[in-house]
TrEMBL record:
Residues 210-306 form the PH domain. This is Switch-associated protein 70. The SWAP complex consists of NPM1, NCL, PARP1 and SWAP70. It is found in: Cell membrane; Cell projection, Lamellipodium; Cytoplasm; Nucleus.
Length: 589
């Protein structure tokens, strides 16, 4: 019943989705109540409106999601379902609610009834997750079944091309996409509509109605013992027979259980291809049309009995479970493989990083080894040169000694000489190494001393920079003072030049006055000679006029009004006093 419950939920999911007009994932409670009432009626479950009201009785008047509707379905509907209702009618109710809103049948090659059958097959083969989809493996299984039912040849290349197109999109189909795929006749080209409809019906009967085999055969009656042609339909646990293939007039049913068996019978009473189905209460003799059909019927009935003995479902349901288990196993293996690949990738990356690190270290070691090898070769070359020089010297000594002593004594002496020289060389090398160590120590001491001197030099440089800054500031002040003194000097030079000009003017005036004085003196001398007679008159008037007589013959200062009232010394004093007053006025300005 668990497998049927999943199929019931798939059909109900389609109906719920059709009621979700705005595609919000929720449906109003009033619509769900109507849907629940219809489902109870079809599935012959006592309808309990009180339980329905109680389940949806809360303060929230809004719509209900599919997850919220599931508890009610499981508790009040699916848990009470029995096997006494028509599954096709149940599916038809759900189909009626959803197909008009999802697909347009006008351009398809199949009828509404065929589309309904494909929809049921989709629900059977789809994955148990929502939204419902059918994967490419199940699509191929269904299309193969359909081509076999139509008597066509399966075109694997065409399906592979379609699978590539499908994989580029979503790798799966919805129910409506599957109906459109079958209805467009993409994989049934060359088949008419009737053949396609018959193929869909045959696959539908096998997968949905659990019809394992059907066909006309002759059956022997129990009372009259006459042979009558009947239409037999083999199911998982029964074998029904009808008057014709329209299944309207059912004549009987052979109930199969684990105690039943089927056996082949020899030909008798003019009938061929006989076999018998033995049950606990009755046995049924049946005649097939040929040996092939007889063997196929015997094999199909034995398969049903064997499945009943093992407690397994019908073959196609068992095959579906195996395919799903295989897919789950493959997915688990794929996930495990991906995890292993991820771990291997991580390990590979770590090893790659380690290899790169080791490569770098190896390159560094090679470079170091190369440098050491070069140093060793250089040292070896130096030693070889030194050894060559020593050997040449030794050869000369040996040649001298060969002339003086015997061969053995000479060789011994040469050997001892070489040993001594090698020891001496060893000691010299030790001394050289010691000198080198001492030189390195001295070098380190010098480095420390240089470091200390550099630090002192830095300190002194900082001090000198401070002094330099002070000198710069003093120079700046000195330059300002220098500019001020320069301006004063220029002012003084200007004043001096003006004074010199005035002095030159005065000098020229003095020379003019001297010339005038000489002329006046000459005139006075001439007048003195002429006016001696006038002395008496002038003496009378001495209180009023001072007679200017010739005085000292030395140089005298002359002005525009006659002889000056001051000497050269007084003029120098007056000039110095005038210059000081001028400088004082300029400094005050």
């Amino acid at each position: 019943m668990g497998l049927l419950r999943d199929e019931f939920l798939k059909s109900i999911w389609h109906a719920f989705t059709a009621l979700d007009v705005d595609q919000s994932g929720k449906v109003s409670k009033s619509q769900l109540k109507v849907l629940s009432h219809n489902l109870c009626t079809v599935m012959k479950v006592p309808h309990d409106p009180v339980a329905l009201e109680e389940h949806f009785k809360d303060n929230d008047e809004g719509p209900v999601s599919n997850q919220g509707y599931m508890p009610y379905l499981n508790r009040f509907l699916l848990d009470k379902v029995r096997d006494n209702f028509d599954i096709l009618e149940f599916n038809n109710v759900c189909w009626t609610l959803c197909f008009k809103k999802n697909i347009n049948m006008s351009h398809l090659l199949i009828s509404n009834d065929d589309a309904f059958k494909v929809w049921c097959i989709f629900n059977f083969l789809s994955e148990d997750k929502y939204p419902l989809i059918i994967i490419t493996e199940e699509i191929e299984y269904f299309l193969r079944k359909l081509m076999e039912a139509m008597g066509g040849i399966w075109n694997q290349e065409r399906f592979d091309d379609y699978k590539l197109t499908l994989n580029r999109k979503q790798q799966c189909l919805s129910a409506w996409e599957l109906i459109e795929l079958v209805g467009m006749g993409h994989f049934s080209k060359g088949m008419n509509r009737q053949t396609l409809s018959m193929g869909i019906s045959e696959v539908f009967q096998e997968l949905i109605l659990d019809v394992l085999r059907q066909g006309y055969m002759m059956k022997k009656g129990h009372k009259r013992k006459n042979w009558t042609e009947r239409w037999f339909v083999l199911g998982p646990n029964s074998m029904s027979y009808y008057v014709s293939e329209d299944l309207t007039d059912k004549k009987g049913e052979i109930l199969l259980d684990r105690n039943c068996c089927v056996e082949s019978l020899p030909d008798k009473e003019g009938k061929k291809c006989l076999f018998i189905v033995k049950c606990s209460d009755k046995s049924f003799e049946i005649s097939a049309s040929d040996k092939k059909r007889k063997q196929e019927w015997i094999q199909a009935i034995q398969t049903c009995i064997q499945l009943l003995r093992l407690g397994l479902p019908s073959p196609h349901r068992e095959a579906r479970l195996r395919r799903r288990e295989l897919r789950q196993k493959q997915q688990a293996e794929q996930g495990e493989l991906e995890e292993r690949m991820r771990l291997l990738q991580i390990a590979n990356e770590n090893k790659h990083r380690q290899l790169e690190s080791m490569t770098k270290k190896l390159e560094e070691a090679v470079a170091t080894a190369t440098l050491e090898e070069q140093r060793r070769k250089q040292t070896q070359t130096d030693l070889q040169d030194r050894y060559r020089t020593d050997l040449e010297r030794e050869k000369m000594v040996r040649q001298q000694m060969e002339e003086q002593v015997a061969q053995k004594s000479s060789e011994l002496e040469q050997y001892l000489q070489r040993v001594r020289e090698l020891e001496d060389m060893y000691h010299r090398l030790e001394d050289a190494l010691e000198d080198e160590r001492q030189a390195r120590q001295d070098e380190e001491t010098m480095c420390k001393l240089q470091t200390r001197l550099l630090e002192e030099e830095s300190a002194k440089r900082a001090e000198l920079e401070q002094i330099h800054l002070q000198q710069q500031r003093a120079i700046s002040q000195t330059q300002a003072e220098k500019q001020e003194l320069e301006s004063e000097r220029l002012a003084k030079e200007t004043a001096l030049q003006a004074a010199m000009l005035q002095l030159e003017s005065l000098e020229r005036e003095r020379h003019g006055a001297l010339e005038q004085y000489e002329e006046v003196r000459m005139k006075l001398e001439q007048a003195a000679n002429k006016t001696k007679s006038w002395k008496d008159k002038v003496a009378k008037h001495e209180g009023l006029v001072r007679l200017i007589q010739p005085g000292d013959k030395g140089p005298q200062r002359m002005t525009n009004w006659g002889p000056a009232a001051f000497t050269d010394t007084e003029l120098d004093l007056r000039k110095k006093s005038w210059q000081e007053r001028k400088n004082h006025n300029q400094s005050a300005q």
